[in-house]
Amino acid sequence: MKIRAYFTITLALLVLSGCFEETKVGHEHPKKLITSLLKEYKPLLRCNPCMSHVPREWGNPSDLVYPMEGQFWVDDAPEKLEPMAFGVLQHSSQTDINITIHHIELDTEFPTVPQELPVYMQSSYALEHKDLLASFHQYHKVLEYHPSYSGIYFAGVHPLTEKMNQINKRNIEQKAKEILGDLIMEDSSTPTTIQHENGYWTVVYYRYVNGYKVYADKPLKVAFDQEGRAISIEGRRRPIIEESYYPTRTPKEALEELQKGNWLHLYVQDFSLPLEKNMERFVIKEMELAYHEQHPGYSRQVLQPYYVFKNIEGQALYIPAIIDAYAER
Predict the structure, then answer these.
(1) Distance between CA atoms of residues 268 and 251, nearest Å
(2) What is the rounded CA–CA span in Å between residue 22 and residue 24?
C-alpha cells in the first residue's frame, strides 16, 4: 500500500539522519533530504490522463468563471435575464431504454409548485482554475480535474485512507467530510449515505439550487470499501451564470402526461435499481420537484426543473416542469 511505502521510506531516512549529528558545509542536511524526497513522492495512477478527450477550455471567454480568493467553487450569483431568454429548452433523455409501463398509480400528495420557476445557464471554469486543486485538496495527486467539465475524477489505484476500526454511518460520513473538505459547499452540505449489499458505502453531497435538489450523473461523492477505506472521489459542479424564469405545468398536469406515457428517463446517478423492461404497475410513493444537470456536451447548457416520480424502490420517471410551449419533447 502506498501509505506503508511512504512511511517505510520516511523511517529509513530518519535512521540515516540519526547517523549524522552535524553536516559539512556544502552538503545537504538529511532532514532536508527527507522533506525533498517526500515532496517528490508520486502515487501509482491507473491512467494519466484518464479523460484525454475532454477539451482544455471551451466557450466564450466572457462565460468562463474563476472563484474568489479562498474558494475552489464559485458561489451561485447568476445574471438575471428576461423571461424565456433561453428559448425552447431541450432535454438529455435516454432514448434507447425500451421500457413499457402498463399502469401508473399515485399514492402520495402533490407538491406545491409556483407558477414560474427559474431555468439556469451553466458554463465552465477557466483553464487556470486547475492549478487551485493542489492547494484545496490533500489528495490532489490522485485526482484528475478538468475545468471545462468542472469535474473531479479519481485516477489512483490504492485506497486513499486506512481501515476503520469501527465502521458505521456516522464514522463514514465524518471521514467523507474530512476527505472532501472545502469542496463541500453550503448548498451541498447535507450527506446522503448509501450502504450497498456488498458492504461498500457511498456518501453523496447533492447540490441544491433554489431550494431544490440537483440530480446529475456525477454528483460529488466519496466511495468506501467493506473495510471503511476511501477508494474513490468524484464530482462535478458546473458554475451557474444566468437565470431566466419560465411558466410551469401543475403537478396534476404532470401526472396526466406521465400516465399518457410521455415520461423521460434522465441520465442520473441515484443508486436505484434499473427499471424492468416490462412493468405491470408503477406506484408513485414520492413526487418532488428537482433540477437535472446534463452531462457536459457543450460549453453552455441549461439546468432546468423536472417533476420526479419515484416508486418504493426509488426508481424514477421524469416529466418536464416547464410547459410544452417552451420545452422540446
Answers:
(1) 22
(2) 7
